C-alpha cells in the first residue's frame, strides 16, 4: 500500500474560497463509481478512450479493471502501460470529478485475482462473476487480463466551490 501524499490545492484553477479535497472524499468517489473511463494510447500515438467497470484496492488509490485479451485497450497496454482513468459527476455545480494518471500493472497472482473477482461481484452483482484462470479471469477466447492502475498523479475537481486538488505519487516502474 502506498502512502497518500499531501494534497496540493492549485489556486489558479478554482474559486478563491476553494480548499483541498481530502483524500477520503477522492477515495470514496473512486470506490463508489459505477463507471470509469480509461484512456490508453495506440501504437501510432492516438488515444483510445473507453468506458468500463472497476473496483478499488489499497487505500482507495488503486483501481482494478479487466479487458479481453483481443480488445483494443489490451493491445495498447501490450506496448505502453501509461493510462488515465477518470470518473465523476457529469454536472457543473455538484459532485467531484477524479482523474488518475498512472501505470497499468498486470495482476496475475491467483489470490489477488480471486480477491478482485469477489470485489467485482460484490460491487456489480452476479452478472459480473469471474472465474479465476491461469493469471487471468476466465480462459480461452473469454480470458481477460486484469490490471491495477498505480497512480502517479491524481487530480480532484471539486464543483461547489470549484477547486483543483493534486496528489503526486512516486512514479511506478
UniProtKB/TrEMBL annotation:
<dbReference type="GO" id="GO:0004733">
    <property type="term" value="F:pyridoxamine phosphate oxidase activity"/>
</dbReference>
<dbReference type="InterPro" id="IPR052019">
    <property type="entry name" value="F420H2_bilvrd_red/Heme_oxyg"/>
</dbReference>
<dbReference type="Pfam" id="PF01243">
    <property type="entry name" value="PNPOx_N"/>
</dbReference>
<dbReference type="InterPro" id="IPR011576">
    <property type="entry name" value="Pyridox_Oxase_N"/>
</dbReference>
<keyword id="KW-0560">Oxidoreductase</keyword>
<feature type="domain" description="Pyridoxamine 5'-phosphate oxidase N-terminal">
    <location>
        <begin position="24"/>
        <end position="155"/>
    </location>
</feature>
<dbReference type="InterPro" id="IPR012349">
    <property type="entry name" value="Split_barrel_FMN-bd"/>
</dbReference>
<protein>
    <submittedName>
        <fullName>Pyridoxamine 5'-phosphate oxidase family protein</fullName>
        <ecNumber>1.-.-.-</ecNumber>
        <ecNumber>1.4.3.5</ecNumber>
    </submittedName>
</protein>
